[in-house]
Amino acid sequence: MRLELLVSTKSTREIKTGVWSQFQPVFANALSPCIGACPLSIDIPAIYNLCLRGNWRDAAIELLRYNPLPFITGRVCPQFCRTQCNRGDLDEPVSIRTVECYLGDVVLEEDLFPPVSSFSSKRVAIIGSGPAGLSAAWYLSLYGCKVTIFEEMDHPGGVLYWGIPVFRLEKLYLNKAIERLERLGVDFKVGHKVLPDELEPLKKEYDAIIAAVGLTKSRSLPIRGFEHAISGVELLRRYNRGALELKRGRAVVIGGGNVAVDAARVLVKSGCSVTVVCVEKGDEMPAIPEELEEARREGIVVKDSTAVLAIDKQDGGYVLELAPCRVVGERDGLKEVEIVGDPECLKADYVVAAVGQEAEFSWDAFSCGDVVNGPTTVAEAIAHGRNIAFLLLGLQEPLPIRKRNEVVTYDVLNTAYFSKASAIVKISSKGDVLNEIARCFSCGYCNGCGVCWLFCPDVAIIIDDGCLLEVDAEHCKGCGICAQECPRHVVVMEKRF
What we know:
By secondary structure, this protein is of the alpha/beta class. The chain has 18 helices and 20 strands. The protein has 4 domains: 3-28 and 447-495, 2-Layer Sandwich (Alpha-Beta Plaits), CATH 3.30.70; 33-113 and 399-438, Orthogonal Bundle (Fumarate Reductase Iron-sulfur Protein, Chain B, domain 2), CATH 1.10.1060.10; 123-216 and 359-393, FAD/NAD(P)-binding domain (3-Layer(bba) Sandwich); 220-356, FAD/NAD(P)-binding domain, CATH 3.50.50.
């Protein structure tokens, strides 16, 4: 070290103190746990940062890059992101789905679309108009493809139309999604069921065919009298088409998944007293926990760890033989159980079975959604439809760009800069949205908070309009205060030599 630097009357700017440093801070965004948990890999911190800067339209369009149906997922997604939110270790996770719902409604109200390109002129046929098919059609159309969707029912939407009850998803939002796709040039052919042996003529007319048919065939259980039960899928279809006629009575729903819980809620809203019977333990039921909790609030009784042994007709109704059980394995998608207690009987006027679905056919075509992955969520189906679209286009999917691939965990955050605040679950104004977004830690993503600049003893951090630009290497001594104080673990120290 030059000794004259130890005593000097020159200004700090003139003395190149950076030569003292063995370490230097590097500003590099990393991954937030919410991004990793989201099937669509939505860049939540970047979108929130745009909102906080008042760029609502840009935020909504950025959301559309990842998810063409935020006004739908914002209402029905099981919130994978929220379960991993680091904020939950301080007080309550951020209400990410609620914010997404608000931005989805901004998309509709302001009629927002991403830019459309003429990258491809392919003609693509999509069989099935569920979330996977709609997603694939959206992205293909944005890049110039001419898309035709074939749907066997009289209305597009697949499970969004016939499978999700209106009290969970108003049909208004599905209709808006279809209308937006039509404006992109997508042609819907409803009431047209395509069978696998009809693919050859279609292959002559289209450059590519995508099977997004979902799982439409209900599975059965090898128990006596199972044929007396109506399938949960059929019950939901009738309900959503206004063709379900029920009298008040006792109903039993067999199954622990989303279809079972939706069917149970339909039945209780129709005036029935409802019991759900499933072989899984209560905390292992595959149904969305939020919907299961809502079902219990509505008076639905859940008998978990219970197997149905038989369904017998009796006195104009049914008697189910039940027994306590535990799950010991799984074969062909069905749980294998061991009976661990004495049987009991349960009377019912209606029996509904929702023990899973399977594909009706196999397809010699590009396939996406549940027909490939098995029963999944709307968000996962949308993600897979997007994946297939970009695969056909030969392009890379939209994913958050980060310099560091590590996921930022709660223990590396500097939470001294965050005060406790309850989550806003029901948002009624832009102010509510901003307050909820402000609760986000922005884990691993620099939002220009300026803490590093404020604490830097050498004024070696250069920022402009709240955005990090660079480190002045000539004056940074590598003290590491910026890395220590950074609330979001964006700043890391790297050895120079």
